[in-house]
Amino acid sequence: MRTLYERLRDLLPESGVRAGATDETGRDLQSLASEFLCHQHVGEMLDLYDVNCVFDVGANTGQYGRELRELGYTGRIVSFEPASAAFERLAEAAAGDPEWRVHRLALGREESVTAVHTGWDTMNSLLPPSDYGRARYERFTETRTEEVRVRRLADVLDEALDGIDDPRPFLKMDTQGYDLEVFTGAGDRIAEFVGLLSEVALLRLYEGSPRMDESVAAYEAAGFETTGLYSVSRDPATGRVVEFDCVMMRAKRAR
Question: Fewer CB near the last or first residue (10 Å), C or N of the chain?
Answer without folding.
Answer: C
